[in-house]
Amino acid sequence: MELYDVIIIGGGPGGLSAAYSAYRNGAKKILVIERDRELGGILQQCIHNGFGLHHFKEELTGPGYAGRCIALIQDKPEIQALTDTMVLAVSKDKKVTAVNPEKGLFTVEGKTVILTMGCRERTRGAIRTAGERPTGVFTAGAAQRMVNMEGYLPGKKIVILGSGDIGLIMARRMTLEGAEVKVVAEIQP
To answer: For residue 120, what pLDDT is reported?
Structure first.
């Protein structure tokens, strides 16, 4: 079983920053495990600007911010990243069991394990979308990923529930992609 100084579960900006910090503080063998196909986390689907002002002192898009974080760990032999890798278990003795298409099922051990899987959208069920499988109904994050990363338009006539930042960002994005946003409905006054 391979032993690492630090194993980080989650390859978004928090995980990448933790890896970089561990490297700067002397860790010699660091592993970042990410379940998605690429590093960067949820930022990869957030193509609007507004990121990076505090950390990088300039306004960046989500992918731009993610790219800066990825660049911090690139070309550092002390830091290894596994993408498309699902963590199945973390034991009390800091053994991490994971699976991916390349290695299959494997277990690694860390002197330290850091969990940075923070930014995930609530599921459709958690936000009480009615029905068992309503056709054409998506969470804002799912629609955002479809349009911005996968290149699919979820429909030509759009109704958005909620006028928070992501709702309004998606209204603008859908309009720019040629969809007709019929309404942005808000329950609050």
So the answer is: 67
